[in-house]
Design goal:
The protein is of the alpha+beta class and 126 residues long. It has five helices and three strands; from the N terminus they run H-H-E-E-H-H-E-H. It has one domain: K homology (KH) domain (GMP Synthetase, Chain A, domain 3), CATH 3.30.300. Strand 1 and strand 2 form a beta hairpin. Keywords: Cytoplasm, Ribosome biogenesis. This is Ribosome-binding factor A.
Amino acid sequence: MESKRQQKYAKLIQKELGDIFQKEAKHLVGRALVTITRVMVSPDLGFAKAYLSFLIADPKKTFELIDEHKKEIRHALAKRIGKTVRVIPELAFFPDDSASYAQHMDQVISSLNIPPAPEEDEEEED
């Protein structure tokens, strides 16, 4: 269970990373739409896991490029939140597969052959 402080810190990092990917890191993401779906912060606030979701045909290449430049992204984050926090956390990026998993499960469920339920005669009681 995360503390209130961790949750506030995670929300701040999530917001600022989103702005960084939209405005400052265009050379990394190009035309891809990158969404930070969740940020989890360690209890000592020194490490942050950011889960990224991509709206692009080849997200693997974009993710690898972001992962290679995480020091640059951390530096941009430090410029934004350096005055309000003591520690700029080390960043670790992970792909968020929940959207693709949901799509896969939707396809599996729609392809099931479920026979209709037998109709039961309902008797009305007066």
